[in-house]
Amino acid sequence: MDGPEALIARRIAQGRGLEPADLVIKGARVLDVVTATLFESDVAICGDTIVGTFGTYEGVETIDGRGLTVAPGFIDTHLHIESSLLTPLEFDRCVLPHGVTTAIWDPHEISNVLGTAGIDYALAAAAASIMDIRVNLSSCVPASPLETSGARLEVGDLTPYRGRDKVIGLAEFMNFPGVLNADPGCIAKLAAFGDGHIDGHAPLVRGKDLNGYLAAGIRTDHEANNYDEAFEKLRKGMSVLIRESSIAKDLHALWPLITPETSAFLAFCTDDRNPVEIAEEGHLDHMIRWTIAQGVAPAHAYRVASWSGANAFGLRDRGLVAPGKRADLVLLSDYEGCRVEQVIAGGRLVTDALFDARPAVAPVGLDSMKVAPVAATDLLTRGNRGERPVIGVVPDKIVTERLTLELGAEEGVVQPDHEKDAAAVAVISRHGVNGNIGRGFVKGFGLRAGAIASSVGHDSHNICVVGMDHADMAVAVNRVIALGGGFVVAEGGEVRAELALPVAGLISLEPHEAVREKLVALRAAASALGCPLSEPFLQVAFLPLAVIPHLKITDFGMVDVDRFEVVAQ
Ligand SMILES: Nc1ncnc2[nH]cnc12
Ligand SMILES: [Mn+2]
């Protein structure tokens, strides 16, 4: 026998204790998330598979498990690795040590810029990473018809990827108005993937509209930011993915959902989490730790972070410390505090040498700035004094308010107003498709001067700039273009801080430690301009997301998301 048959025979022999296992964790306390109990045991591993628990085993190699608790590897059920600002392999090196052994990636950020080349990049990275990166195919590129993306993905672009290694199904179906209105393009995608997994994205969708959205075959949601909405979705059979991103922090509202009965139907996700927060707080380990600190039984929190997510996405080979399951294991020095000591990914102890041995993945999209430098006059909103729609930023939320403010004008140009905390905002099309510039105003950035610009502008990733001075806005935008993409703070005609994001205008080529340092400097520069927000760049980056209520801005202009129409250019 050789090949799969020999491997199965080896697993049986090692599981039965007839021969030493490849690797044994000796004398640990093991978490069983099925019965929510802990038990003392060795854990025997053959290759990438757990083969023995509830027993004593000999191992070719052993790990001293005394004083440690072994939990199933954590599963981030919905994220955009691009939002970490890191390359996927740098994300792997940054996040796997936090116990996240599986990450389910929707590469719609890079796909909005590069099209299927973005999906190919994601799959190449998934083949090289140590953590098991799975890919859901980006269902809505562009996210809405009210923006200009760098590419479009129709059903015919997606179906060739079905069944590919690492591919699960269809990623977050954000165009919920398109679903509810039975838009033909949406229906075609739902039909093509209906027999598999379809992820959802349904902020504030309730009642019979939610029933219609679910009847379309959509299985999960991560956009509920309040208990009642999440509870309704849970009771209607959705897997609710509780999110703690760097900007949308829903854990504090949703942790009470986690009970003995519901924890099998809830999962954790991060959506968009950057290296500063990963370093300062953690990743899913932070979510587990924080949830337990609220009083949730530890075993239920760990179940949400492992088995429940595996089950929701059809990953039947993982999520338990049990024979036959994938050897994704987290060794904890503090069970209630979720302090990760060591991680085993696919049966391999995670070490620096393991990361160093990965094959390289070539960067893509290094020429994604297909736009000429702008002049300050390009960013002006022409008009007279009067009332106009203004985006209301809500700290730690991506939902924004639809405000109306009276703003003054000078010589036919509408002016930012520091007293009213009304900054100018513009979105500059950057994909070489057209010369669109959307212009408007936003309240909540607290700026007294200067400008903040970003080539990360969800999800079409045009350049978004917020400022109190149009000349500084142009300086910031033009530096973003010169960098090939990035975040820039400018004041008094000077660049005060910057981070280059040359991979599709979204991702840095630097190590996560360097990206973290530059993000800290950018936050400090934004704060020096008066900005009180903990995440100023993500707040800028989410202003264009026209599938999140209520008022946003794209390269088309100000978009009323509830009425799904452009309300001001
Ligand atoms: N990056 C993203 N794209 C679409 N919807 C989101 N909701 C939160 N983050 C998002
Ligand atoms: Mn979403």
Automatic annotation (TrEMBL):
Reaction(s) catalysed (UniProt annotation): adenine + H2O + H(+) = hypoxanthine + NH4(+)
Taxonomic superkingdom: Bacteria
Location of the Adenine deaminase C-terminal domain: 398-565
Transmembrane region(s): none
Cofactor: Mn(2+)
Coiled coil: none
Alphabetical keyword list: Hydrolase, Manganese
Enzyme superclass (EC): hydrolase
GO molecular function: adenine deaminase activity
One GO process term, biological-process aspect: adenine catabolic process
EC number: 3.5.4.2
Keyword Hydrolase attributed: yes
Domain Amidohydrolase-related: 69-350
InterPro entries linked: Adenine_deam, Adenine_deam_C, Amidohydro-rel, Metal-dep_hydrolase_composite, Metal_Hydrolase
Keyword Ribosomal protein among record annotations: no
Family, as annotated: Belongs to the metallo-dependent hydrolases superfamily. Adenine deaminase family.
Protein name per UniProt: Adenine deaminase
Organism: Hansschlegelia quercus
Record lineage: Bacteria, Pseudomonadati, Pseudomonadota, Alphaproteobacteria, Hyphomicrobiales
Gene giving rise to this polypeptide: ade
